[in-house]
């Protein structure tokens, strides 16, 4: 009798764990997607569901000509590496739709502009 109860308990536990794993595996990350066809060009903002291996969202502004930008799914490790590039202002994050763009003009470019510094946030 005790073995039978133990077997049922184990089967229920395995079933519960399987169901829990199915629910967590089905939750993919969603990111804003805006990738211009041409460097510095415009793009259409959409939503991208990240594929396996892409565990983060990225939003980047290029600080040299052609001064482009993009938003997309990316491996967080790759995104963090891009932060080392002085000519890319990139935001790396891992929550749904977290990769909003922030347009900033950095201090090293202020002398080339007729105004001081400007910071504009893009609402989506």
From TrEMBL:
Chain segments annotated as coiled-coil in the UniProt record: none
Protein name stated in the entry: CD59 glycoprotein-like
Protein's organism: Amphiprion percula
GO cellular component, one term: side of membrane
This protein's UniProt keywords: Signal
Signal peptide interval: 1-28
Family matches, as Gene3D superfamilies: CD59
Domain of life where this protein originates: Eukaryota
